Structure formats: C-alpha cells, structure tokens
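Lesson 9: reading folded outputs for more than one chain in a single document. The general rule is that every protein is listed as its sequence immediately followed by its structure tokens, and records are never interleaved. Here is the first one.
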Amino acid sequence: MDPERARAALEEKRAAAVERLRGLDASFADIVEAARDSNLDDEHDIEGTTIAVDRAQVSSLAAAGRQQLVEIDAALARLEAGEYGICLRCGQPIEEGRLEARPATPWCISCARAETSRR
C-alpha cells in the first residue's frame, strides 16, 4: 500500500476510534450519573442487566478502543520511520490485501496466525 493511502486509511480509522471512545466515555458518565441518585436494588433485577454489568461492558469496549488507538499510532510511527508494511516478527513484507483490511497490523498473515496460536 502506498504511504499516502496507508496514512489516509490509518487516520480515518483513528478518527472513527476517537469518536467511538467519546461516545463510550459519555455512556459511562451517564451510567455513573444515573446510578448516583438511584436507590434501586438492581443487583436482584431479573428483568435486565445490572448497572455494574453495564459499566463493565462500556469499560471493556473503551479499553479495546484505547488499545486500537495505540495500534494505529504505532502503525503511523512505522509509516513515518519508513517501516510500514514490514512484518515486525519475520521482517517480510505484509501482503497488500492484509494491509487494506487491517491497516494497523504489525504482522503478516503467517506471523499473525502464529501469534494467535501462541496466545
């Protein structure tokens, strides 16, 4: 993938991740605010999820979004250093289709499979 196209794809993904995080942060704040003045015993509400579960879900999504930003920023740094598109594990070029599908990926498909198996 040429550098300008890669930069555009990464910046678009970054902007979407930042916007998603803003929404999640607002949702978390809303949940906390709603719980502050509530005297409901939602831990025993069989009709729905608890406030704690809602908070945990939003927190988990926000953590994943922050991790995505870290990965995108690392890819942008590799782009600046002239190392974008080179697998960090084996040093071989990352396939064009993989970069188009996952512009922030640091690994070729073979190394990504190996990393997934390792975990």
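And here is the second record, again sequence then tokens.
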Amino acid sequence: MKKVEIFTDGACSGNPGPGGWGAILRYNGHEKRISGGAPETTNNRMELSGVIAALSQLKEPCEVILTSDSRYVCDAIQKGWAESWRKNGWRKADKKPALNSDLWEKLLDLLSVHHVTVNWIKGHAGHPENECCDRMAVAESQKFQKKVQ
C-alpha cells in the first residue's frame, strides 16, 4: 500500500457562516494542495469536507496518516462514535440526531477503503502544515464573505 500523509483544516466566519477548508496531500516527496468552501456552513462541516476531499483524491487504497486539529473529526473516528451513529440510524447515545450525517456517511465509506491513522494536533500552535491548511481555509471562506457584502 502507498503511504500518504494528509493534513486538513476547516474555518468558518460565524458558525454558521461562510466557510472554507484546506488540505495537503503528501506522497513520495510530492505535495498537492486543495481547498474549497461554502457560503453558509459550519466549522465542523468544513473540517469534515477537507478530510473527505483529501481522501477522495486517492486513486487506490492507501495507508494514510491523517493530521487534523479537529477534535470532532479525530475523536469521532478514533473512538468509533461515527460508526455507532451510523449503526444507530444517525442517532447519538443520547438519542439525539447526529449532526452532519451526510458527510459522515461519505467519510465512513472512504475510511473503509483506506487504512487511516488519525493524528490530532493542537491548532494555531505553529504546526507548519496545519498553519498552511488554515490559511487556505480562511482564504476560501473570505471568497464567500466578499460575495455576501
């Protein structure tokens, strides 16, 4: 299996509000940067969208090290929460609806293809790839802010 590093971040101006995500994929000395956004979204949706977009770039099953500053994404994957939500009809343990089930469905399908190791890092703490992804995410969110004004 090819070994790929993925770094992602999401940003939102207001929650909800204009948002963006950025991702870096690194394989065998090559790096690819991708980004996107939405005019009306949440920070968690942008965090998920970055991971989904990055994993969707992979053309074959890979061994992935995913680095993110999103506890929401990292914990839901590592602790099995998202899988439990899906098994329970997108309901959490407290029986309330799980948010972002459309994105979690896509992400769980992608996670079933790849061997993903999740690495949580503290955001805005000088991690070079995280800072770069944050700049891309903010730039994407700003594209939508200008359209709103």
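What the second record shows: Residues 2-148 form a domain with the Nucleotidyltransferase; domain 5 fold (CATH 3.30.420.10).
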